[in-house]
Design goal:
The complex is a heterodimer of chains A (295) and B (274).
Chain A: H1 5-35, E1 50-53, E2 56-59, H2 64-71, H3 73-106, H4 109-124, H5 127-138, H6 143-150, H7 164-188, H8 192-200, H9 205-216, H10 218-233, H11 237-242, H12 250-259, H13 264-291
Antiparallel strand pairs in A: 1-2
Helix pairs in contact in A: 1-13, 2-13, 3-7, 3-10, 5-7, 7-10, 8-9, 10-13, 12-13
Chain B: H1 2-32, H2 49-56, H3 58-91, H4 98-110, H5 113-131, H6 139-164, H7 167-175, H8 180-191, H9 193-209, H10 212-217, H11 225-233, H12 239-269
Helix pairs in contact in B: 2-12, 3-4, 3-6, 3-9, 3-11, 4-6, 6-9, 7-8, 9-12
Chain lengths: 295, 274
């Protein structure tokens, strides 16, 4: 729509731009700034980047925090741990989510809306509560162990909680809808006449799937994988509630660095490295959102 | 024939398994909230005692009031900012810094919340050092943080609906002599009302649900509901939280179902606006 004039455009674009600049872009720059400072006792608990020295301002930037991240293998193991957890949960979401998306796309039209609604509904309920719900199921005297004991399938309770299994389960459970929706989107847009043509030419269901359905739904698979992978890498709630002492994920390390150790500069440095590691996937996921605004 | 039957059975089985996985834990939580026993998985009879305990718990009540206050303000602010941002991206194809604008508008959707929280806290601290604002951290700082990421979600919805909006309605109004601002207020905004309603609701529930960002940017004066829930479930299962979760889920499901029904009705009445 045209005709707003210079002032109108300034208001319509300027207000959100100013807000985003102030409360999103500036804070990211400040994280970088504080990652170069030293931890100090006081309020705020870090040294200023520019301090006056002999009456002249001097720059006090140091890469000590990044050197610490590189030296102490806790951080490296936590970054790699997060990537491992995220990659495994992305794969599991794909293995569960793809057949579900396909089944929804093939369902009778009257059912499709309801099924999609059921996939979206968990988005609207509390993430924290849905993660917490698993504790009652997985704990040593929890429901799953009791059922297995009652069926005489096991003789002692299995360690299901506070380990790799429970964290992985929590990640898959929480992020599964992010995988189903984009795959469903590309399956729903698929031209049915291609499949009919293949069937007419004698292709069986398996060849139809491998030759047509799978390649044409790849954009949805890629989008869903990024939407699961990126937030899973930075996850904190799931490793904290469902993980154990040996669960190493970088989101939890950052949280502890900040809230337990009160070392703000190291926490900022952890964040900077995390942003750098996720920059490419974030830019890519953002482009996907940009291209398909119907998310 | 048998092949297609087995196909149907496989798809039905997939859906049953998938939705059981998604919904069983929530359903169990609801069941446990009526359990007389403090121990989970030991059914000691039906009881509503945890709901009574919940009502009597000042900590949860205050946290719920704080969360509702923050969520209402943050969602309203997010609605305004997100609508402006989505409108600017959809309708102004050339302006200075449009790429940066588009990046900043959508990035909060994919940047880990732990980074959003830390960066905003460091910003608020630095800003307090520099100009004395904000004076303290609490409801105001959480509201700003939630409005920021809520606006991103609103912008996506608004932009998607504007892309489908029939521009000839706007052009007709302009041809008939309406001013651009009047067209925006009386043609465009009513036309994208479903996006505005679902955008506000989404920003509201995201704010109500957020633990990580609020934990970073809050001060000693404000505790939100997720923060209260988190500190009481960290040591283990709490029956009061089960009751709270059931109330929360009930309210959310009713509101979301009503919003969907409303939008479906509007879709039937004005199919072109969608």
């Amino acid at each position: 729509m045209t005709g707003f004039g210079r002032f109108g455009r300034l208001v319509l674009i300027g207000i959100p731009f100013l807000w985003l600049g102030l409360f999103f872009l500036t804070p990211l720059l400040i994280v970088v700034k504080i990652s170069l400072a030293h931890s100090a006792i006081g309020i705020p608990p870090y040294t200023p980047l520019v301090a006056s020295q002999n009456g002249r301002p001097a720059l006090h930037a140091s890469l000590a925090n990044f050197v610490l991240l590189a030296r102490d293998d806790l951080y490296l193991r936590a970054y790699l741990g997060s990537l491992g957890y995220a990659a495994a949960s992305t794969l599991l979401c794909l293995l569960i989510g793809y057949p579900m998306a396909l089944a929804i796309a093939r369902a009778p039209a009257v059912w499709r809306q309801l099924l999609l609604f059921l996939v979206v509904l968990p988005f609207w309920s509390s993430f924290l509560i849905r993660v917490y719900a698993w504790i009652a199921i997985l704990q040593p005297n929890g429901l799953l162990n009791r059922v297995l004991l009652a069926c005489h399938l096991i003789s002692n309770p299995l360690p299901l909680l506070n380990n790799r299994f429970s964290v992985e389960l929590g990640l898959v459970y929480s992020y599964l809808p992010f995988m189903i929706l984009p795959i469903y989107g590309s399956l729903a847009a698929l031209d049915q006449s291609l499949i009919e043509a293949a069937a007419d030419l004698g292709a069986g269901p398996w060849r139809q799937f491998v030759g047509i359905i799978l390649p044409l739904s790849l954009p949805g698979v890629v989008a869903g994988s990024f939407l699961v992978f990126v937030p899973a890498v930075g996850e904190f709630v799931i490793p904290d509630l469902l993980g154990g002492p040996d669960t190493l994920m970088i989101g939890k390390v950052l949280w502890d660095e900040f809230f337990e150790n009160h070392d703000w500069p190291v926490a900022a440095a952890v964040a900077v490295v995390l942003i750098a590691a996720l920059a490419l996937p974030i830019l890519y996921a953002q482009r996907l959102l940009d291209r398909e605004p119907a998310a | 024939m048998t092949r297609s039957n087995s196909g149907v059975a496989f798809r039905l089985g997939t859906l049953l398994f998938g939705f059981a996985f998604l919904y069983a834990p929530i359903a169990l939580l609801v069941v446990y909230s009526f359990n007389a026993s403090r121990l989970v998985a030991v059914w000691a009879g039906f009881s509503t005692q945890w709901y009574g305990a919940l009502l009597a718990d000042d900590q949860f009540r205050n946290a719920a009031a704080t969360s509702l206050e923050v969520a209402t303000m943050a969602a309203s602010l997010a609605l305004v900012l997100g609508t402006l941002g989505g409108f600017a991206m959809a309708r102004f194809t050339r302006f200075w810094g449009r790429r940066l604008f588009g990046f900043a508008l959508l990035a909060p959707l994919v940047v880990p919340e732990i980074i959003l929280g830390l960066s905003l806290l460091l910003f608020f601290v630095a800003s307090h050092e520099l100009i004395g604002w904000p004076a303290g951290r609490g409801v105001l700082t959480i509201t700003i943080a939630h409005a920021s990421f809520g606006a991103s979600f609103v912008a996506v919805l608004v932009r998607a609906q504007l892309a489908l909006f029939d521009r000839s309605l706007e052009e007709a109004a302009l041809d008939l002599g309406a001013r651009p601002w009047a067209v925006l207020a009386r043609v465009t905004l009513p036309g994208i009302r479903p996006a505005l309603i679902s955008g506000w609701l989404l920003a509201f529930t995201l704010s109500l649900d957020d633990l990580v960002v609020a934990s970073f940017v809050t001060g000693p004066s404000a505790t939100t509901l997720p923060m209260a829930v988190f500190s009481s479930v960290r040591p283990g299962v709490s029956p009061e939280v089960n009751a709270l979760a059931t109330v929360f889920l009930g309210v959310v499901f009713v509101v979301v179902a009503a919003a969907f029904a409303l939008m479906a009705r509007q879709q039937r009445r004005y199919p072109r606006s969608l």
